[in-house]
Amino acid sequence: YPTWKRTLTRRAREAQMNRFCKAQTIQRRLEEIEVTFRELEQQGIKLEKLLRDEDGTPTDQKTQWMNQLLYLVQKKNSLMSEESDLMIAVQELKLEEQQWQLDHKLRYYMNMEESLKTPEDCAAEQEILAQLVEVVNKRNVLIHIQEEKRLSEL
Fold first, then answer.
1. Which of 4, 12, 33, 135 has the highest local Cβ count within 10 Å?
2. Which pLDDT value is given to residue 140?
3. What is the distance between the alpha carbons of residues 83 and 40, in angstroms, rounded to a whole number?
4. Phi/psi of residue 96, each to 5°?
């Protein structure tokens, strides 16, 4: 087993492990965001009730409640933006994994001797190549979306 094949195999395992760790981190953060959303929702409900039942409440207190409510809305919007970024990252990881698998299959067919390939092998190779191009295009679209979002936030 040549050294370069062992190196490629090791690097592939490392890349797969990195994707797995990223996916776990993203999942954990999404769960944290969900919990925070619920907490913000509860705080918002309390503030809305206070604002509706404002009989005899000083104007300063009402203003303070409104400011708190606006802060909660702002915080919720920033969490929604982060959640959107994380969902894009999840899609990107899935596409990266899919690309790796297709690349692995394509290498199998490309390493075959041309004279030994059957018409089915050639068709499978072309199909895998088409799928690989599709996955790369999808990843490109995600990167474009992230770039547009980043520019719009500036």
1. 135
2. 95
3. 15
4. -65, -45
Residues 9 and 17: their CA atoms lie apart, in Å, by: 12
Question: What's the rounded Cα separation, in Å, for the pair 15 and 12?
Answer: 5
Cβ atoms of 96 and 19 closer than 8 Å: yes
Q: What is the structure's pLDDT at 27?
A: 96
**Residues with pLDDT less than 50, the chain:** none
pTM of structure: 0.79
Q: Where are the domains of the chain?
A: 3-153
Q: What SS3 state is found at 154? A: coil
- The alpha-helical segments, DSSP class H, found in 1-154 are 3-52, 59-111, 119-153
pLDDT of residue 87: 94
Nearest C-alpha neighbor of 103 from the set 3, 16, 1 = 16
In angstroms, the Cα distances linking 70 to 36, 64, 65, 76 are 16, 10, 9, 10
Tokens 């929702």 locate to: 41
